[in-house]
Each structure stands twice: as structure tokens, then as C-alpha cells.
Design a protein that fits this description.
Elements lengths: L6 E5 L7 H12 L3 E5 H14 L5 E5 L1 H5 L3 H10 L4 E4 L2 H9 L5 E4 L8 H6 L3 E4 L2 H9 L4 E6 L14 H7 L5 E7 L10 H23 L7 E2 L3 H6 L7 E4 L24 E6 L2 E5 L4 E2 L5 E2 L4 E6 L16 E4 L2 E6 L7 E4 L11 E8 L2 E3 L1 H7 L4 H6 L6 E6 L5
Parallel strand pairs: 1-21, 2-21, 3-4, 3-10, 4-5, 5-6, 6-7, 7-8, 8-9
Antiparallel strand pairs: 2-11, 11-19, 12-15, 13-14, 15-18, 16-17, 17-18, 19-20
Length: 404
């Protein structure tokens, strides 16, 4: 029901004795390719993140880009059940979508929204980021009462008003149609432990603090403040602000593989990605496979055709270099990944048959493919990899009885 994404509910535990067996038998008939979402992992991640936040700091769940490919309404509704009522998205459309499906609490739009949409901001009770001073003026000129948060640019130079423009920032607190619900900045190298990057982050923090101290000295009652994203929490856990904007960490992942951070909470991946063997092909020595004939068999090979491709979000850059898991063993991707299909070499894996499960992200037997690992192989970050997972992938919810 979310952004055209299909969902199938699987109730775990002892809810239905034969559910697992039925699901294993029928999945290839129901789904082309699917992602399993472990809501128990989501709950554990929330708990683990709260352990490293100060008691006064709340989680602002970042659910933009369809909750990093997991399903925005699905994730947000279960976070509501867990007591989280602060969300951040990128666009007005994402925010309205959440409201239409009953998501409760504040929804902050992190990106730019033209002032002509001020009526929608008010109608759906959304909070708009003030992207710069001219944007603030345009919003104020509509004379429509709206909620806003002031973005401060302390060095990323993307959105926000620079702290040097103190007069302009102060003036926003007297705009009669503005309900100022927060003020924030973004640490652009919080993921790095390099000395020069730490120094830059400290400079950003100092700049933000100087501004807030000035506003307090001017008699302005400060709104809730937030600075940390996932890596701000992992590498600067001692900061005490009202909210922390948690994105990739909420989903049990890091942006890059084997990163070193000051904090290491016990988070678990929420998403696993699966497909199945659609067809078995045998090719002779010297045969080529796929577009561009980029793979040539050195000897007779047995190949499995798998119905997932780059239109589903699986990176084409993994052609001839990535791998999947079948029967708990690695099977190398051969040939170019197509829009809707790809091919894996299963010569060394015994008894591979049509409809056998293929693991693209997740665990099978003793082996596991992490999203971070897949992102590294495709020369990107986990955030991009997950957020590109498309609407053709059915999301299967692994629901414990506590979520009924």
C-alpha cells in the first residue's frame, strides 16, 4: 500500500504452525523477488540506539526515500507503535503520503518546498525546513500559519542560513505566521575519524553553539535543537540535544563496510533480499553469456537465471563481480546484469533446481551477504543501495505476535 509497493504478511512464532512450510512452498508462485523485513530487528535497533542517547534526547526517525527502501508507511506505523512520533522526510510528497496513511506525530520536511505549497503544509500539519532567508521570506509572504524549523549552515553549504546572518535569524522568531518547532544543523563529516574531519565537526558544533548562546542572550526561547544524524550519534555520543535524526542505523546498517566508530550498538539488519531460480541453462566451453558477451565459459558451465535486475535496484556494476547465495553456497554472477534478470554460475553447487531460493542480501547457511558488502562491491554506500530497491520487489513482513 506504500508508493505502489506490495506487502505480504508472515506471522512468525506459533501463530500458525504450518505458515513457514506453506510460505516456503508457495513463495515462488506468489513472488518474483521479495524483501523480508524483520520488525523484531527494527524494535531491537530502536532499543539499542536509545541506550546511547542521553535520556533527554528523542529519536527523529528518518524515513525518506521510502524509508531507505524498506517501506515508509510500514516502518513509520510500527515506529508509532514503539512510541516514536518524530519523523523526517525529504519532500512534501513523502510527508503527505505518511499523513494520508495515518502516521501520527511531527513530520519534518528536510528539503526545499516552494511557498505556493504553504496551504498543503498547513492542511497536513507538516513542518517545513527554512532553506535560506529568502525562502523564509517567501513562506512568510503567504501569510499562512505553518510550522517551520530553521536550518543552520555551519559548513556543509547545502541548505540553511549561515550563523553570521544573526539579524536575519533573529527576525524569523517574530514572524507572526511561523510556529518555530526546531532549529538544526548537519555534521557533514561525522562519519570520519580523521583528525582534520574531527576538527571540522568540532568547528561546526562550536558555530552552532555560539549561535544558540546568542539567541538565548537576546531573550529568545530556543526551540528543540538537533545536530546528530546516525554518525553524529555513533561518533559524538556525548552531545546533548533534544533530537537525533536516525536514518541508516535505524535499519541496522552502516553506510560503509567495516567502519570504525566510537560507539558500536548491537543493531541488526531489518531487510533481507531474495529471489529464486527461474531457469537452469547449460553452456559449453567457449560460449558467451549476456549483453556484450562479457562472460566466456572456459569449460562447460551450469547457469541459473534469476528474475531480478537493475530496474529492481540491484546494481548493474556487480556484473561479473558480485555473487549470490544458493543452498548456502556462493554463486558468482556472470555476464551483464540486465534490467529484469541476471545469471549466476551454479556449476559447483549440487542439485540446484528451478524455484530454489536465491539470497542477494541476508543469510543462508554459514554465509551472509551484508548490504554494506554489496554496496562496497558496487562502489557506493549502503544508503544508496537500499533506497534504490524498487516497487516491483514485494515486501514480506516478518511479524511477531506482539505486533498483532
Amino acid at each position: 500500500f506504500s508508493c505502489g509497493v506490495r506487502y505480504f504478511l508472515y506471522f512468525g512464532g506459533d501463530f500458525m504452525e504450518n505458515t513457514t512450510k506453506i510460505f516456503e512452498q508457495k513463495r515462488q508462485e506468489i513472488f518474483r523477488t521479495w524483501a523480508e523485513l524483520d520488525l523484531n530487528a527494527l524494535q531491537q535497533n530502536v532499543s539499542e540506539i536509545k541506550k546511547i542517547l542521553p535520556d533527554s534526547c528523542q529519536i527523529m526517525a528518518v524515513v525518506k526515500a521510502n524509508a531507505y527502501g524498506h517501506g515508509d508507511v510500514l516502518i513509520s506505523s510500527h515506529l508509532n507503535q514503539m512510541g516514536i512520533y518524530s519523523f523526517a522526510v525529504a519532500t512534501l510528497e513523502e510527508a503527505i503520503h505518511l499523513r494520508k496513511f495515518g502516521i501520527e506525530g511531527s513530520i519534518l520536511i528536510l528539503g526545499y518546498t516552494p511557498s505556493l505549497y504553504a496551504p498543503e503544509l498547513m492542511q497536513y500539519d507538516l513542518t517545513q525546513t527554512v532553506a535560506d532567508f529568502s525562502h523564509a521570506q517567501e513562506l512568510a509572504e503567504t501569510k499562512i500559519p505553518i510550522k517551520v524549523e530553521i536550518k543552520i549552515d555551519t559548513g556543509m553549504h547545502r541548505l540553511g542560513i549561515t550563523p553570521e546572518h544573526k539579524k536575519e535569524i533573529v527576525s524569523l522568531f517574530s514572524v507572526p505566521t511561523f510556529c518555530i518547532c526546531g532549529m538544526y544543523t548537519h555534521l557533514c563529516v561525522a562519519d570520519s575519524q580523521e583528525p582534520e574531519d574531527i576538527a571540522f565537526s568540532q568547528k561546526q558544533l562550536e558555530s552552532f553553539k555560539c549561535l544558540t548562546d546568542m539567541l538565548k542572550a537576546a531573550g529568545i526561547s530556543l526551540p528543540p535543537l538537533h545536530v546528530q544524524s546516525s554518525y553524529g550519534v555513533l561518533n559524538y555520543p556525548s552531545l546533548k540535544y533534544d533530537f537525533a535524526r536516525i536514518g541508516i542505523l535505524l535499519y541496522g546498517c552502516h553506510s560503509q563496510f567495516e567502519e570504525s566508530c566510537l560507539m558500536n550498538p548491537d543493531v541488526r539488519p531489518v531487510l533481507s533480499l531474495y529471489s529464486h531460480v527461474a531457469l537452469i541453462r547449460e553452456v559449453d566451453e567457449g560460449d558467451t553469456v549476456g549483453y556484450g558477451r562479457t562472460y566466456k565459459a572456459r569449460r562447460k558451465r551450469r547457469l541459473a537465471v534469476i528474475p531480478i535486475g537493475y530496474a529492481d535496484g540491484y546494481p548493474r556494476s556487480l556484473s561479473n563481480r558480485g555473487y549470490v547465495l544458493i543452498h548456502g553456497q556462493r554463486a558468482r554472477i556472470v555476464g551483464r546484469i540486465c534490467m529484469d534478470q541476471m545469471i549466476a554460475d551454479v556449476t559447483a553447487i549440487e542439485n540446484v533446481c528451478v524455484s530454489d531460493r536465491v539470497t542477494l542480501i541476508g543469510k543462508d547457511g554459514r554465509h551472509r551477504i551484508y548490504a554494506e558488502e554489496l554496496a562496497a562491491l558496487s562502489q557506493t554506500i549502503t544508503n544508496e543501495l537500499l533506497s534504490r530497491l524498487g516497487s516491483r520487489i514485494t515486501r514480506v513482513l516478518l511479524i511477531d505476535k506482539k505486533f498483532e
